[in-house]
Amino acid sequence: MKNDHSTLASWLKKTELLVARYLAQNESLETPVVKYSPPLELKEALDFSLGAPLNEDSLWQAVEKVLDKSVRTTHPLFLNQLFGGLQPESISAEWLSTILNPTMATFEIAPMMTILEKEVARKLSNLMGLKLGEGIMVTGGSNANLVGLLCARQFKVPDVKKRGYQGKKYTIYVSTEAHYSYEKAVHISGLGIDHMRAVRVDANGAMDPKILREMVRQDMAQGFTPLMIGATAGTTVLGAFDPIAEINKVAREYNLWLHVDAAWGGGAILSPTHRHLLKGIHLADSVTFDAHKTLNTGLIASFILCKHPGMLKQTNQGGGSEYIFHDYDNSDWDTGTYSLQCGRRPDIFKLWLLWKSRGDEGMAKIIDHLFDLAIYAKNKIETHSRFKLISSQYLNNCFQILPPNEFIDINQYTLKVRTNLVQRGKALVNYVELPNKTIFFRLVAANNQTTREDIDHLFKEIQESMELVDKIC
Ligand SMILES: Cc1ncc(COP(=O)(O)O)c(C=O)c1O
Asked: Domain for residue 11, yes or no?
């Protein structure tokens, strides 16, 4: 079917009306964040099977059902994930990107988007002090960590692409609080999970550089070859920042690659008030940065930044010269050779348009607002007689809820309240279960739609869940 102008315009118009209605509903705290149903019940909500075509009215009804039963991540009380809300500029950019539909593989096909991506990579690198840095967008923070590891491997084992590891055992070092994507990167890259070392953390959840040094030393003595340290700036659960400058001393002493996963904490670089949290990031060899988290650009908007020009290309280049990476005047600008992907969406537009619209000051305001919410939430937790604050760092507040009497286990009680909250659907906040069975709420400030009043409302909802759970305890 050819896309004639009026058919396309009619689809877009209907979509626009639906989007406007949907987003307006999200502004009301009466709208549930989630209409919780178990999968088998949910399967009854709609005829999901494919076969005969639906007429247009039925089709739009089906679309409305899909929206209605989906989690409203732009709702102000969606506080479950390290992202939430959506910036209007980013929504526009996402739509336009779909219409343009370029692939970022070559300058020839994505000339404007390539320039935008280089500009933002340069800006972020400058802010972080990665002077000659370059960067490319990837399919998420997890994949940025993988590419960071692949760069480390290229640095330490320059002929690895051709000859593999040749029987050598390479080790990497991350903290016990690091994101699980490091473990994925280790098995995908063939290093082997047994060769990933989990370095103990201090009381705040930050990597202990003394233990790190000792582990590196012991591994070398036992014939392993240390390859990379994967620090974290803003851990997923506690929001801890590893001491990059101290860790860097170990990296330099033993000639290791230093990657910093700033997927969650990286946004702080945009705020003159809070960027001190990223002290030492200029020492990193590579950095993961997720704009879809604190900046709310919408999934996915992730960068891998690398201090060493040419390293991303050396690491990821391979194949495609016969049909896509032609030798032409502007082939130096082709970014497909830097990337693990062939087809690549112009995720950059969501971030660039937002930044261009708000300016540096506006970007700082986005981050500062989240800090304000986190501090506000911390105060509420601290002043409630039945909340027990476990940790409050960066944008993460972790807390448990005291049961009504001492015979009820605090962990199970906390989980019951959280389950009740999800089932009632008025707010969504994640929880953490540690290997020692400690369970707590992890309340993160990542959603720019959220206000202080919404945080008040959240605690009212939690209180209501507590009262309901108390009745059945
Ligand atoms: C510290 C950290 N690194 C990496 C990731 C993975 O990011 P993504 O979801 O973009 O793959 C997360 C996700 O929450 C994270 O918290």
From this structure: no
Number of domains, the chain: 2
290 lines ligand 1 (CB under 6 A): yes
Distances in Å between the Cα of 216 and the Cα atoms of 221, 229, 250, 256 are: 9, 10, 8, 10
Q: Choose among 128, 119, 124: nearest CA to 284.
A: 128
Is the beta carbon of 396 within 6 A of some atom in ligand 1? no
Question: Which ligand 1 atom is the nearest neighbour of the CA of 302?
Answer: 10
Asked if residue 239 is part of any domain, the answer here is: yes
Q: Are residues 272 and 396 in the same domain?
A: no
Q: What residues contact residue 136 under an 8 Å CB cut-off, 6+ apart?
A: 117, 121, 303, 304, 312, 335, 338, 339
Q: How far is the CA of 143 from the centre of ligand 1 (A)?
A: 9
Q: What pLDDT is recorded for position 132?
A: 83
Could you tell me if 48 and 165 lie in one domain? Answer: no
pLDDT digits (tens, 9 = 90+) for 447-464: 999 999 999 999 999 999
- Name the pLDDT band for 329 (thresholds 50, 70, 90): confident
Residue 426: exposure state from Cβ atoms within 10 A (0-12, 13-18, ≥19): buried
CATH code of the domain containing 465: 3.90.1150.170
Question: Which H or E run includes 457?
Answer: helix 452-472
Q: Does the C-beta of 140 come closer than 6 Å to ligand 1?
A: yes
CA 72, CA 428: separation in Å to the nearest integer?
Answer: 10
User: Ligand 1 within 6 A of 264 CB?
Assistant: yes
Would you say the pTM of this structure is higher than 0.90?
yes
